């Protein structure tokens, strides 16, 4: 605002030079990137009398930034993953955690994500940390939820006499790796091949399972 003259035009300048821009109408724009807190003086100089000036002091602050670690994880039903949010350029390092899609698991205020107890299909979930100092500053972790690997054996029960065999078949679901390792309990009661062929002991003195 220029007074005591009919010529109210001003010339705008910035100090330090180059720390942002100012339009002829006085619209100041901060630099796109601010690495450190800086104080800028934006000065209006009367074109009618260049000795008449006034300034505004503008403090430029680095933008609040959020990062999340780890950025990716794969979980099965009920498993957990601890996420850590790091907030920079502010003394308020608190964040608010959210999940998208909503309801696909839970996340604690400390960033502990828990997958749903049951997962029927592979799902991708975004767990986002939002700065409480600046809600426009966010970062996310992408979590892939996989159905739990399941194994079934057929037949489930069978009765054998000494030396007899039974072919067992294992069916593995929810994974591309269908391989299984066979074992017997108690150890040494018969044998089983890698293909699932069980052979009863040559001598059986008492009934056992």
Describe this structure in words.
Helix content is 0%, strand content 43%. The chain has strands at 10-15, 21-22, 28-29, 38-46, 53-60, 65-69, 72-75, 80-82, 84-88, 95-100, 106-107, 112-114, 123-131, 138-145, 150-154, 165-167, 169-173, 191-192, 197-199. The protein contains no helices and 19 strands. The strands form 7 sheets. Strands 7-14-13-10 form a 4-stranded mixed beta sheet, with no helix packed on it. It has a 3-stranded antiparallel beta sheet with strand order 1-4-5, with no helix packed on it. With 209 residues, the protein is mainly beta.
What key phrases describe this protein's structure?
single chain; 19 strands; 3-stranded antiparallel sheet; rod-shaped; mainly beta; 209 residues; 0% helix
List the helices and strands and how they pair.
Layout: E1 10-15, E2 21-22, E3 28-29, E4 38-46, E5 53-60, E6 65-69, E7 72-75, E8 80-82, E9 84-88, E10 95-100, E11 106-107, E12 112-114, E13 123-131, E14 138-145, E15 150-154, E16 165-167, E17 169-173, E18 191-192, E19 197-199
Parallel strand pairs: 7-14
Antiparallel strand pairs: 1-4, 2-3, 4-5, 6-9, 8-12, 10-13, 11-12, 13-14, 15-17, 16-19, 18-19
């Amino acid at each position: 605002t220029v007074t005591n003259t009919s010529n109210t035009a001003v010339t705008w300048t910035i100090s330090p030079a180059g720390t942002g821009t100012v339009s002829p109408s006085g619209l100041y724009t901060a630099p796109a990137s601010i690495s450190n807190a800086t104080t800028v003086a934006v000065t209006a100089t009367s074109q009618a009398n260049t000795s008449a000036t006034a300034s505004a002091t503008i403090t430029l602050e680095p933008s609040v930034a959020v990062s999340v670690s780890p950025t990716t994880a794969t979980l099965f039903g009920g498993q957990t993953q601890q996420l850590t949010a790091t907030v920079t350029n502010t003394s308020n390092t608190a964040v608010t955690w959210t999940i998208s899609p909503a309801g696909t698991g839970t996340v604690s205020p400390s960033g502990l994500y828990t997958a749903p107890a049951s997962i029927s299909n592979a799902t991708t979930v975004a767990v986002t940390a939002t700065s409480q100092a600046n809600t426009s500053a966010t970062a996310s972790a992408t979590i892939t939820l996989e159905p739990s690997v399941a194994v079934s054996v057929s037949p489930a029960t069978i009765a054998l006499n000494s030396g007899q065999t039974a072919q067992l078949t294992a069916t593995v679901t929810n994974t591309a790796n269908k391989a299984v390792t066979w074992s017997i309990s108690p150890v040494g009661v018969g044998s089983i091949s890698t293909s699932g062929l069980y052979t009863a002991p040559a001598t059986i003195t008492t009934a056992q399972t």
